[in-house]
């Protein structure tokens, strides 16, 4: 196995890196398609490919259908390179996986966690799951090529430090990178969970998505932005922090101190609160009954009541969608994206929520900006976060970003 | 004179283009600084520089102070290349200039116009002024190296066509590029006036501004976005069309059909209307007097009244600033820019307007996003639009964008 350590990633030439990145996005690509896509001459491409095959970075894949008489051999990143470690940390869940360099999941483990326990206990579980997976695969820790991790809070990307993470008390200034450096001899990259989903969506679409954003609606509201093909983090790494955009000057006070923030009016807790108030006021017998039996109401209860035809639940869902759509309309006018991808727990509210978002965006955005726009739930399955973390690890390593 | 025609721009190698672009941004730069900045070896840089000097593209400039014992010769784009033609078309004004390849203004002409006359009469004036300037400089039309033009409406950048320009009736689908192709044998690039100002600001800062936006507030409100160092136009070229972002769900109806658009509540016409209503209602004796003598009130009247201490005028200016700031706060949370640059006629409302914008942005944006942000009026002088049009012409030609 040709494992690349932190130092060895830095040894590639610019042309070799470009070829690696192009092959990474394409998974399995013929030399002629690669040369055409990169604008390389056949000889320049051959030189880079030969070097990378000698180093064990690239390998021949199956035979491609060819337009000419000769068969076209496909190229892919070699499985011999090692494994990619991916960590997807949520507020209440932890998943760890080992992936091939082309992001096929070799094995994964998930468990409940509470990120508020702080970095000590949580990172101990990350390391334990990682070691368990390596053992299951019969691998040493040195087999890890690169590690990527998504976290539910803002990250200063170049340092990998958590910055003022509201739902992660005790993590402020904690370096996940340093903490994992002793475990794997490989570059470690950390980013927030929404940027990770944006990267996974881009990977899923083989880089055809160039200008889009992902909105995560759960306990809070966050946004991952891709601009000209790259994740855009802003000047201070704070881009996409859209939860406190004003949607109603007469709205309720938010925990941030301002009034009328979209997060305070349309995210999970606002939905649960509206349902509880409606139940207490006797507006919905169904919600009142569940509140009585369960002791509390959560967004899935509202979704369930809506499915059973409860008009109050439908109105709550519709209001959330309309307010999120109003916020998105402003961002569509500014950014003119090709797609808006929705993710997070509230996405499971159902079709009425999505329809309300769309209605609001179409009504409040300019015709030119909405001519081709697609607003859709994320198409990633349960492993979306892990695939995104793996893509972060591979891309950042190939580009030799500081780790 | 070594004039580059449309075809000849395409003949440069990728390395030559990179050197040309770096020299363009720097104006006058030593070989060692250039090699360091571009990550080129001295030999690779020397080869590209020698080729470009032989072709007459680069020339030696003055002697630079050097840290070592040897003197460092500066390099710049050669004035022998030809002249850059720049056209700055506003709703009511037209300026045309000839610039050196390093964007020094050789001569310029301005006159009043009315863009609503349509392309025929307006473009005839563009051509007449261009010919007059060439004659004044003793040059043939063939001396023009590249032409850039800013227009007060949305442009589909790759085709150069105007798309549904609200204040330019009769221009829909008109090709300025084709119209000027018969006049100059050089690439022609067209963009909207706010993108042009963004480019001029970036040029002014020698490309140190990488992520920022320009807001133009006049009759309408528009935005020019620079993302990762490049003007960002969005998927349909509609990015930055922020005038119809909702700022008050209970606000007045806008000409677009929606209610509460920032343009309808805070741009020039809204300021004039608020002043007129206040004068008619007897709330401001000063404004009432001017309305009586002048027959109408315009934004400069409101600014003048504010300078004379009129409280109603001050309240009108403050409300405009607060609403624009509220809209900008949403964009700051989303985009986390290093700067917001204000331009357009309403910018001349004075310090209270700017202070109100700042207050609103600081109150409604996240602390991390506003830690380093600068909100300021454009620092470009009267030739800002022309410099931006010249920068568009040079950069697009160097990058061989389709023209």
CATH topology of the largest domain in chain A: Nucleotidyltransferase, domain 5
Reading off the top of the CATH hierarchy, the class of the largest domain in chain A is best stated as Alpha Beta
Quaternary class:
homodimer
Which blocks of ≥5 consecutive residues of chain A have pLDDT under 50? Answer: none
Radius of gyration of chain A: 23 Å
Q: What is the second-level CATH architecture of the largest domain in chain A? A: 2-Layer Sandwich
Number of spatially distinct domains of chain A = 3
Strand element count of chain A:
15
What is the strand arrangement across the widest sheet of chain A?
6-5-4-7-10
Strand % of chain A is: 15-25%
Mean pLDDT of chain A: 90
Question: What general outline of chain A do the C-alpha atoms trace?
Answer: globular
Question: Could you name the CATH homologous superfamily of the largest domain in chain A?
Answer: ATPase, nucleotide binding domain
Family (chains A, B): Belongs to the ROK (NagC/XylR) family.
Protein name (chains A, B): ROK family protein
Organism (chains A, B): Deinococcus hohokamensis
Pfam families (chains A, B): ROK
